[in-house]
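Help needed: design a sequence for this.
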């Protein structure tokens, strides 16, 4: 007979939390003026001749939040991110109603960061001011490029002049602003990219995100690829962009994110530090910790299905516990994106499991020079940052590695019974 008590076995196989991680709230708005040909987000061009169903959507979001309250009962919300899609398509009054409803239902920290994503094609100065008055205190603006040639190649709905006007007004009204830009654009060279960086720096935003344009499956660009810079050219562009931003005083704190000191995006930092988030809205993902388990949820993805089902108090399409064997990879997938990494103790705090369950991956990553050998931190080396995918993959279990090569989108999620 085994001398291990069943209770101890359970302790080894289930997370045990002394304290739950910080909680963030994500709100997804699934509509855009037009679908960009490179974008695989859950975003749909609003083709209706009528106005967006903004009232019905805010009602659905509120019903969704109410149905989720038992899973986050009493927990303070530190950040709110209203993303999309293009949330700035909604009238400011809808954002105000949404934020009031959130404040009335969950304890929102007095200093909560409240971000809204906006597209310069929806820019109106008065509307931005009304978003701010409604309680939005950070604006994330999808600029992509300040060059009309590239905006055109990307199929954006706005031109460079509109991008400049939106950035100028955002900085004036919110102060706390992120500009999203992409690089390695069709036909782009290093000079083009550095001109874009210079144009962005002229606004001195506290935060800049620079994403390398990727060809995502199920997008128009994937089917009809534009002539993109090759890997070497893209690496040269990235090096030039990163150097310029560093010289201008921005800290490259995450793979694609650059911020003035202490101006990092608190909401995204919570994801990368494996914090909790409740995601409401069409197709939103959640990760929630309980005393002895971590749960992932997915809301109904299609806007109309979501509208119908959330209104009935049934917003969930899928829900599953995160298995113990997936925790090292899930944690490292996030934490190792951070240039400074995380304290090693955070692993146990955020997964509820001892760091020893990741020891094989840590040893191999250290041996390969991808992870710093300091036992107090989990921090990628310069080589690890460059080959981040390889570093993260060292934490996949054999079973997960096999699953990753299968065409599974739902991963470990269990499909809930379909609602008639
Ligand atoms: C969900 S979008 C939100 C912003 C807003 N919808 C807009 O585009 O103006 C977030 C950002 O993801 C980036 N992005 C989207 N698709 C991408 C892709 N295929 N490759 C790289 N970055 C991408 C863009 O920079 C975009 O601003
Ligand atoms: S506006 Fe933003 S979310 Fe909408 S399709 Fe374009 S990149 Fe995607």
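Sure. Designed sequence:
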């Amino acid at each position: 007979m085994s001398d291990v008590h069943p209770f101890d076995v359970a302790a080894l196989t289930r997370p045990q939390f002394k304290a739950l991680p910080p909680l963030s709230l994500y709100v997804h708005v699934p509509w855009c003026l037009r679908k960009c040909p490179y974008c695989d987000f859950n975003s749909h061009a609003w083709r209706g001749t009528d106005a967006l169903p903004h009232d019905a959507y805010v009602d659905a979001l509120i019903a969704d939040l109410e149905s989720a309250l038992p899973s986050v009962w009493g927990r303070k919300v530190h950040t709110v991110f209203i993303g999309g899609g293009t949330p700035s398509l909604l009238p400011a009054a809808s954002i105000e109603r949404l934020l009031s409803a959130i404040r009335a239902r969950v304890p929102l920290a007095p200093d909560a960061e409240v971000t809204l994503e906006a597209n310069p094609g929806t820019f109106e100065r008065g509307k931005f001011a009304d978003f701010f008055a409604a309680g939005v205190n950070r604006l994330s603006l999808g600029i992509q490029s300040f060059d009309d040639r590239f905006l055109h190649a990307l199929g954006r709905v706005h031109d460079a002049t509109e991008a400049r006007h939106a950035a100028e007004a955002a900085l004036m009204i919110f102060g706390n602003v992120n500009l999203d830009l992409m690089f390695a654009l069709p036909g782009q060279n290093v000079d083009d990219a550095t001109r874009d960086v210079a144009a962005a720096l002229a606004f001195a935003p506290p935060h800049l995100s620079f994403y390398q344009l990727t060809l995502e499956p199920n997008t128009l660009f994937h089917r009809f690829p534009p002539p993109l810079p090759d890997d070497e050219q893209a690496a040269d562009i990235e090096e030039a962009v990163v150097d310029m931003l560093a010289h201008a005083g921005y800290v490259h704190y995450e793979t694609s994110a650059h911020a003035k000191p202490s101006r990092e995006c608190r909401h995204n930092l919570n994801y990368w530090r494996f914090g909790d988030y409740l995601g409401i809205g069409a197709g939103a993902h959640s990760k929630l910790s309980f005393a002895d388990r971590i749960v992932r949820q997915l809301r109904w993805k299609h806007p109309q299905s979501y509208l119908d089902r959330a209104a009935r108090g049934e917003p969930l399409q899928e829900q599953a516990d995160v298995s113990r064997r997936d925790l090292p990879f899930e944690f490292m997938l996030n934490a190792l994106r951070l240039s400074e990494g995380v304290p090693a103790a955070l692993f146990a705090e955020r997964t509820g499991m001892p760091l020893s369950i990741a020891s094989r991956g840590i040893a191999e990553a250290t041996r390969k020079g991808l992870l710093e050998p300091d036992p107090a931190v989990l921090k990628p080396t310069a080589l690890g940052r460059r080959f981040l995918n390889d570093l993260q993959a060292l934490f996949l279990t054999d079973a997960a590695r096999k699953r990753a090569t299968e065409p599974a989108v739902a991963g470990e999620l269990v499909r809930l019974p379909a609602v008639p």
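DSSP finds 17 helices and 17 strands in the chain.
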